[in-house]
Amino acid sequence: MICTSFGNGKKHDFRLFKESKVKIHRNIKTLTDSGYQGIKKLHANTELPKKRTKKCPLTKEDKRHNQRIASERVINENIIGKLKRFKIIADKYRNRQKRFGLRFNLIAGLYNWDLKS
Hints:
By secondary structure, this protein is mainly alpha-helical. The protein has helices spanning 13-20, 60-84, 100-116, and strands at residues 30-31, 46-47.
């Protein structure tokens, strides 16, 4: 499922998520990276990797937990990498901003169509 939200300029992913006001059904499990600290307040069914600090290093169990989350998220990261080949999200977009969402969704549709074949 593709749910996109766009913003002008550089903006942190979690901030963009909060500003988009996207609601995720409570039964849907989300796997996020460590940049989404605080998403548990908005969506309880979320798995975040544990972060280490200088005073509190990760245990072996925490490292296994992070590895499991990363192995599940790698599929999404690979898809994002393939979408970046079209350069629409890898480089600065220099066309009309009004059409950016349409063009991005068309590229995502092409990728989904390619998966079927």
